[in-house]
């Protein structure tokens, strides 16, 4: 079993042409952990820049719906292309960060207008979760075994299937999915989804380490950074949804 995140699957890393020489390995041409971290920071800066742009425009009275939809669509296209063409990641990853930032900025502005203070809470919760997972992984308190990987992937796929099916049903019927609203059941589902999203971070760390160990090509640093950013965006959106449900009960 592999990470649900399309960027973190064993096939993508194993199929990447290993850069080597019969006599001497040029480590400047292979994937490194520091290089992946640096590119993840670059993507984070670009994402924040895109988010601030939409946020500022929304505050000035601009309707961000077009930017939200456009950012989501372009971001998804970048994800799909990079999944099948990892070598294009150095070009697509920065673009993904910017357009996903436009999406996140507009979405955050909507939530903030309805529940003041929710955005900083969601951002804080996301980064705290990330660093806790990083610490647990670094000190091997939680290890990524085959059983761990299979359980997380199965749960993630189940969540994706549930979201897709309920969304399609609501398009043609008046059916109200159980995860809508602010009931205790709905809040419980959000908590469960956040836990699964957080567990995916461990899989992401593990796949990045595998890429480094297998001396994947240099462009896989962008590929790895992009995949990790996808997981963080998912986690942030889920925190927004959970906090909005809790605040709406007050």
Which key phrases capture this entry?
250 residues, mainly alpha, 74% helix, globular, transmembrane, Bax inhibitor-1/YccA family protein
**Total beta strand runs:** 0
Main beta sheet:
none
Helix and strand content put the structural class at: mainly alpha
Total helical segments: 8
Distance between the termini: 41 Å
Number of structural domains: 1
Written overview of the protein:
This protein is mainly alpha-helical and 250 residues long. The chain has one domain (10-248). Helices cover 74% and strands 0% of the residues. The chain has 8 helices and no strands. The chain has helices spanning 10-14, 33-59, 65-84, 89-114, 118-138, 146-172, 184-213, 220-248. The radius of gyration is 19 Å and the shape is globular. The relative contact order is 0.20. Mean pLDDT is 88; it is low at 18-25. InterPro entries: BaxI_1-like. It comes from Flavobacterium stagni. This is Bax inhibitor-1/YccA family protein.
In short, what is this structure?
Keywords: Membrane, Transmembrane, Transmembrane helix. The chain has about 250 residues and is mostly helical.
What is the topological layout?
Layout: H1 10-14, H2 33-59, H3 65-84, H4 89-114, H5 118-138, H6 146-172, H7 184-213, H8 220-248
Helix pairs in contact: 2-4, 2-8, 3-4, 4-8, 5-7, 5-8, 6-7, 7-8
Protein name: Bax inhibitor-1/YccA family protein
Keywords: Membrane, Transmembrane, Transmembrane helix
InterPro entries: BaxI_1-like (IPR010539)
